[in-house]
Specification:
By secondary structure, the protein is α+β, with helices and mostly antiparallel strands. The protein has helices spanning 37-49, 51-60, 63-88, and strands spanning 4-7, 12-17, 20-23. The protein has two domains: 1-29, no CATH class; 31-94. 52% of the residues lie in helices and 15% in strands.
């Protein structure tokens, strides 16, 4: 039996492991982006309450980009709220 075979119907390579052929699948590489506290909290939310979305993002290699974007949006929103609250209450740097 061949170690690797190619299936023209679906375009995938298969590797022989023991007596079975398994597809040769890899997760696409994504660039490292820092994920802050808001992104980590959203990740926990996705794992607990939206596992299908979490797995889809993870398997497509888009999870870190998604979480970094959520973290940035949340941080910008927090900064805006802090500025609005300070202005409404007349708080200055001094």
């Amino acid at each position: 039996m061949d170690k690797y075979i190619f299936n023209e119907a679906n375009g995938l390579w298969y590797e022989l492991v023991g007596d079975y052929y398994f597809p040769c699948l890899t997760v696409p590489a994504e660039e490292e982006q820092p994920v802050g506290v808001w992104g980590q909290r959203h990740k926990r939310y996705l794992k607990e309450h939206r596992p299908a979305l979490y797995n889809a993002l993870l398997l497509s290699g888009k999870l870190d980009n998604y979480l970094a974007d959520i973290d940035q949006q949340a941080q910008e929103r927090l900064d805006t709220i802090i500025q609005q609250t300070a202005h409404a209450q007349g708080i200055t740097e001094t």
